[in-house]
Amino acid sequence: MSPPYATVIGLEVHVQLATQSKLFCRCSTRFGAEPNTQTCPVCIGMPGALPVMNRRAYELALKTAVALNCRIPPLTKWDRKQYYYPDLPKGYQISQYDLPMSSDGYLEISDPKDRFPPKRIGIIRAHLEEDAGKSIHDEAAGKADSEIDLNRAGTPLLEIVSEPDLRSSAEAKAFLQELRLLLTYIGVSDCNMQEGSLRVDANVNLHIETDGRQVATPIVEIKNLNSFRAVERALDYEAQRQYRQWQQTGQKLGDAPKQTRGWDDAAGLTRGQRSKEESSDYRYFPDPDLAPVTTTPEQVAAARASLGELPAALRSRLISELGLSAYDADVLVNQGRPLVDYYLAVADQCGDAKAACNWVTQDVLRAMKDGGLSIESFPLSAPRLAGLISAIRRGDLPGPRSREAFEVMLASSRDVESAIAELGIEKVDESALVELCRELLAANPRIVADIEAGKMQALGALIGQAKKRNPNVDPNRVREICLELAKGGG
Ligand code: ZN
Ligand code: MN
Fold first, then answer.
1. What's the pLDDT at 300?
2. Which ligand is the nearest neighbour of the Cα of 130?
3. Which among 31, 195, 355, 440 has the fewest CB atoms less than 10 Å away?
4. pLDDT at position 255, please?
5. Quick check: 151 and 133 in contact, CB under 8 A?
6. What digits encode the pLDDT tens for the residues 73-106?
7. Are 91 and 48 in contact (CB under 8 A)?
8. How far away, in angstroms, is 43 Cα from ligand 1 center?
9. How far is the CA of 137 from the centre of ligand 1 (A)?
10. What are phi and psi of 113, to 5 degrees?
11. What is the pTM of this model?
């Protein structure tokens, strides 16, 4: 039964752009260096140090905005967002306020499991800003003190804000997965959540139908969502919590202000943190140290031309041109472009798109997982896998033994002909196969009687014996021949 309310969700995603250096200085953005070794007067906020915009960061942001179907204004500017926190030495973050570099876009999401219909999720805006530093709380080491690492301060982030168009945790997760896929396809971010390259905050409230009118619970912003799974769980928890609270407070909503709550993944709940700031609390004003940025239609067109084939278009092509199911197209595309390219090469060379898809999405993916391999380092090349599929199609490699051949080819990097020789696989001659079946039937009168009585499962025993006599036989063919002979023989 669906709940008596609609869950209304908007997401704010901070994506770290894949630049070598920071947004306003030349410090490295490399992850994992010794604390405070990648800093300079600009990013630690020394008085008089002047920021200079990183052109590459702007190009990556523009590329993303175009991929998200955003409107790109001809002029954008920088603003100071002022707040005090120990990891923000300048006392303000350079961000964008009233003239963001892009707005009014959308991203389409769909669910191969059909839990929700395909849907267009609006993007309110995507703007560039710098990251803050990181507080290191060393309580575990027993020191109970806190230290600050400013290596991350000034790293370029793109903040992407969705419309509150999402209606369930499943839709929110699908949005994030599709966004991450898009960002990796166009190469603007590695989207590594463990390293903080992709961070998610979620705004959520309920629209409740009561006494023929609709009321809304106060919006809650959930922070500290470190995985897509955490996003899903936190949203489900928060929807139920808000509904419970609405019921408990006599179904009156009052003027509760917006609230920020933190997700505690281990405890599986959200905790109140503070009432949410309004933008006026930040005293935004234009940064006098940075010139506005102009963007020409030619630059937008160049960004668009650099995108390549996006995941949604690639899925459509796999379905319409190669005849794959929506589910198979989704599995392939979601693995990333290198795997799709491998698949396309196999399909093209063996001429059987569906068989190629089965091999790649089942055997290749399993072997990659078992061996901890990427497709780039996969020992079985696309031409060799295509050779294996072709050998099955020609009848040189019986289907039941094809996995053995695959394993041999994978382990010792050889082609299918050499694997067939190594395994002693021989093509079974049709007349020899009929002869074998005849012998088996003659030797097993009880099984024949069972088959004649309509007990088809009795055939299994014959197939087993046939395989023991000759591992190369095709079990389907054995079944067919035995059935024919048993009926014909009477
Ligand atoms: Zn710096
Ligand atoms: Mn932000």
1. 98
2. 2
3. 195
4. 62
5. yes
6. 999 999 999 999 999 999 999 999 999 999 999 9
7. no
8. 4
9. 23
10. -90, 5
11. 0.88
For 268-277, give one letter per residue: b (16+ CB within 10 A) or e.
Answer: eebeeeeebe
CA distance linking residue 350 with residue 252, whole number of Å? 66
Two tokens, residue 426:
């021989």
Quote the ligand 2 centre to 4 CA distance (angstroms).
33
Going from the Cα of 43 to the center of ligand 2, the distance in angstroms, rounded, reads 17
Name residue 409's amino acid. Answer: M
Residue 483 has pLDDT above 90, yes or no: no
Q: What does the alpha-carbon distance between residue 134 and residue 139 come to, in Å, rounded to a whole number?
A: 15
Alpha-carbon gap, residue 363 to 346, rounded angstroms: 13
Q: Which of 332, 325, 367 has the alpha carbon at shortest distance from 346?
A: 332
Q: What is the DSSP letter of 120?
A: E
What structural domains does the chain harbor?
5-299 (no CATH), 331-423 (no CATH), 430-488 (1.10.10)
Q: Are 172 and 107 in contact (CB under 8 A)?
A: no
Of all ligands present, the nearest one to the C-alpha of 14 is: 2
For 153, residues 6+ apart whose C-beta sits below 8 A from its C-beta are 22, 39, 43, 44, 87, 88, 89, 130, 131, 132, 133
Which of 128, 150, 135 has its CA nearest to residue 28?
150
Q: How confident is the model at residue 250 (pLDDT cuts 50, 70, 90)?
A: low
Give the C-alpha separation, 82 to 58, whole Å: 22
Q: How far apart are CA 307 and CA 64, in angstroms?
A: 9
